[in-house]
Amino acid sequence: MSATALNRHRFARNGYAVVRGVLPRDVVERVGSFLSAGESAATAMVRDFLGLGSDADVRAACEEIARRNAATIPKEIRDVAMGHFPLAIRLSEQLWEIARVEALQTLVRELLADEHVFMHVPPVSRYVVPESRTAGVPAHQDRSYNAHLPAFITVWVPYVPIDKRCGGVVVYAGGDASVREIAAPTGPWLGACSTDGLRPVQPALEPGDVLVLSEWIVHASAPNHSGHTRLSTDFRFFAGGRSTKHALDMATFTVIAPEAKG
Q1: Separation CA 117–CA 193 (nearest Å)
Q2: What are phi and psi of 67, to 5 degrees?
Q3: For the chain, what is the radius of gyration of the CA atoms?
Q4: Sheet holding 168-173, edge to edge
Q5: Contact 124, 171 (CB under 8 A)
Q6: Rounded CA gap, 123 and 68, in Å?
Q7: Ordered DSSP codes for 140-185
Q8: What is the pLDDT of residue 48?
Q9: What's the CA gap between 137 and 114, in Å, rounded?
Q10: Terminal CA-CA length for the chain
Q11: How many contiguous H segments (helices) and E segments (strands) does the chain have?
């Protein structure tokens, strides 16, 4: 079986696929360094806004803000507390360096079975500080968070080694392409969806590997118990259809406004 057929088979059967060595290490390192510097700037926003002195204070404050989703805190600060990079960083074309990798583009075209594909912009880059207790996104299907997109896949790119301590993504295998029941929200995220009858899998990845997820596969973010910050980006790709938000045309690397995309 060819690599293309094998990727398609695994993805169609499981709803996810781990693909090794897709990205050059130097590209991953450059983008990871950019995000690492951005993480320092992001947490400084919380420190300055709350008048805190130490990184330990910032971590505790972020956990409290994320836990309560405090309405008195500006949205930008709340987002940073939840591990999202500020919009200016997520809009940076530095992140496009990942999307420009030909091997990744080939993989995306193979899995979407289309030569003309688009990427939602901006990508979702996140950081999870060491020993974070509130970073985990509950079990969910990406379709629940991305109603603006037509049929799509998510490519999760880690910039650090992912093992049991660092956490990463827990995939719940064995489901089908249907919406699963969602519990009432208990914090800033949507409520956890049902994982009944599903098998948890926690892939280990090295920088350069990617985890591809269907829009229906149930998955969650694991806590980071390691001694270093976890950095990652969700890239969402689709073919055809129409997004109600901006998209990057992967053929020309131009941003297409919703009303202009044909």
Answers
A1: 29
A2: -65, -40
A3: 18
A4: 140-141, 218-222, 168-173, 199-201
A5: no
A6: 25
A7: EEHHHH-TTSSSEEEEEEESS-B-TTT-EEEEEES--SSPPPBPPP
A8: 81
A9: 31
A10: 36
A11: 8, 12
Report mean pLDDT in 10-residue bins for the chain, 262 residues.
Answer: 63 90 98 92 79 70 66 76 85 96 96 94 90 74 86 96 94 79 67 88 97 94 90 95 88 85 48
Residue that is written with structure tokens 């301590």 in the block: 165
Output the pLDDT for position 2: 52
The domain 3-25+93-256 is placed in CATH, from the list 2.60.120.620, 2.60.40.1740, 1.10.10.10, 3.40.50.300, at 2.60.120.620
Q: Find out whether 26 and 214 touch, Cβ atoms under 8 Å.
A: no
Query: Which amino acid is located at 145 in the chain?
Result: Y
CA distance 23 to 209: 7
In this prediction the pTM is 0.88
